[in-house]
Amino acid sequence: xxxxxxxxxxxxxxxxxxxxxxxxxxxxxxxxxxxxxxxxxxxxxxxxxxxxxxxxxxxxxxxxxxxxxxxxxxxxxxxxxxxxxxxxxxxxxxxxxxxxxxxxxxxxxxxxxxxxxxxxxxxxxxxxxxxxxxxxxxxxxxxxxxxxxxxxxxxxxxxxxxxxxxxxxxxxxxxxxxxxxxxxxxxxxxxxxxxxxxxxxxxxxxxxxxxxxxxxxxxxxxxxxxxxxxxxxxxxxxxxxxxxxxxxxxxxxxxxxxxxxxxxxxxxxxxxxxxxxxxxxxxxxxxxxxxxxxxxx
Length: 297
Fold this sequence. Notes:
By secondary structure, this protein is an alpha/beta fold. 35% of the residues lie in helices and 24% in strands. It folds into 2 domains: 4-168, Rossmann fold; 186-290, K homology (KH) domain (GMP Synthetase, Chain A, domain 3), CATH 3.30.300. It is built from 9 helices and 9 strands. Helix 6 (186-202) runs antiparallel to helix 8. The N and C termini lie far apart (40 Å).
């Protein structure tokens, strides 16, 4: 059989499980995950290599009606990946009813040339009757090439999803080196892991107006020394982020430090600082500085 290759765009509404699906497919953590919408801000590639094929999966931010310059830039990243895709996974959270946000998303895939799969995620949380009802609702809205029920969190039915995907890919060349599993640098993943811990520990108290900057990075005697800055939008959030006697920032630092040690395979010493940048999500210069304007013309 000739070598197959292609791009698979993973799209969907915020919090539908796109990043969890990418991590399940790749069997490693490439994208951070939280239960807050719009956790993913950049397109992230996961590159699956075998002797017979190379599949480039593109995890994208959740499609939403944007209210900030950051939101508009995130949507542009999604639309860019859709243009290049051979296959598109429309990932749906089956625990949520079909709504106006879903209509908004379907409008944007109507003219795609990709083969669109309806990926019904979180099926472990509903009954068979509810799954059938969700399937019927979505199938009446769009002609999907495949409909695959999965649980990304439990890795259920991922193999079937991969099999039908590979069958639909064209014959082609290898786009990336065989040993490459993602396009994202260690620095990007370091910042994302710190941001993930901020979202996890602060829960609903700190919304998505958080960004991370690496201020300094040095390695000595096998130990990586990192200094990172957590940027947030409102003065009222500073006390929450630091916590009583520094307890919150300490929890964030230790959790990030542990995961970074696993990721990088070396001892990591992390220092965290905080700074207010009011309304940074609407400042074009700040979005450029933070790497959130990759797809703007």
